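ugh finaly. both done.
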Amino acid sequence: MEFLLYLVLGACAGVLAGLFGVGGGMIIVPVLVFSFTAHGFDVGILTHLAVGTSLATIIFTSVNSVREHHRKGAVRWPIFAWMALGILAGAGLGSLTAATIQGPVLQKIIGVFAILVAVQMGLDLKPKASRGVPGKPGLTAAGVVIGWASAIFGIGGGSLTVPFLVWRSLPIQQAVATSSACGLPIAAAGALSFMALGWNHEQLPPYSLGFVYLPALVGIAVTSMFFARFGARLAHRLSPRLLKRLFALLLVSVGLNFLI
């Protein structure tokens, strides 16, 4: 039953990754927190375990989402390359930051972030394209900030990267596609950092590699890889306005649950 939950969660995360340019972490982390709590995992590490596992799953989600977007010629690879330099450093720093925060406090921080993302998506708040794409130092600096925040929240960074790129005058489809590509270095650097930080932690459950829980990783990865391609195709065919609002309602409920 537990593995079935991870399979369904992976399918949902994959569609979100391809459709909105997010890694699905805003869904994965809360569900894993609830699941780990129900299984009696130690409260001091279960949030960190959820974040680390979420980042590891996003590696698989991103690969298939990026392939589909690249096939349609929507990824701006030069922008990705310079942002990725900052993302790698920022994700490592973000993992270190998260490790210093107590589990219950980290849940509240994630809850606040979930509500902010919900407001942005539900009201369809978008920055106006008021500036051009920054130079190489600007893209790298933006990558550091996005990578740092994404590693703390266990996300692929799409909720931060897409608005930034739209503000910098990229068409929305290119912003989503490039954001999907940026999710890969965020996830890889963040997951490896969480593995190292949790290595041999005495309170970890069996089948864990540091702060990555392997049963959840395998279950989510199996379905997310397929459904990410499906979501990417939908992004080029459908207007996701209604889906965004439904997703926003879900995030509000998740955020409030973490805060109360």
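ok and the 2nd:
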Amino acid sequence: MDRREWLRQLRGAVYRGDGAEVVGLLRTDTEPLPVWQLIGDGAAIALAQQADGARPLAADCVAALRRRDWIGDAELADQIDGLAGSGPMPLLRPLAVDLDVLSEILEGDPLTAGGALDLHTGEVWPRSVIDEGADDEAPDFDDVDRFRWVDGDSRDGYRDMIEFIDTVPDEGFADRLRVTIRGRGAFRRFADTLGRGREDELSRWFEFAGERKRGRARAWLADVGYRVGGH
């Protein structure tokens, strides 16, 4: 199984909440990608379902998260330790929210990003959907006890590009990438340049950026008193 297919299957298992499949995928001969935020969510699901092999997987994931120590990694490691009984459970309320969707309103162009998180259901409402006009069944977005509003911010995503470029081994190509992120349209030019004959680097960028966004969304969620999941 190649890296892309392995990652696709892992994302699907986490999305479906299939802890046994998560454990099975991480037992394969495929070298795990450094997507510890995603793996950690899978480990949390596997622990909650008491899947065979979940505990050693969780211990490895916690060690990797604490060693890497990106934003959001400590919050996830604490949650996994709490679920495994190897540490106190964080005093955060569980919320069934998709971190990938949440990150879309937290980051990006301030003119198009932003929106609201439903603290009762975990549903994410992009600002564009809200601005189009709510129907009779739409909730009251002015209910401050239920909704947390956020504005989009592209600065973290821009810093991700800078940090990723520093990991590119081909210095000549890295210099080309540094040129692409100057001025307006930086994100599009950056991805286009990676996509022209550098598919491995483009895939690595998507993995890197996805992990960073997921971690920041998790940290933001913890700051407002919540954690992912219902366990």
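summary for the 2nd one i guess: The mean pLDDT is 90.
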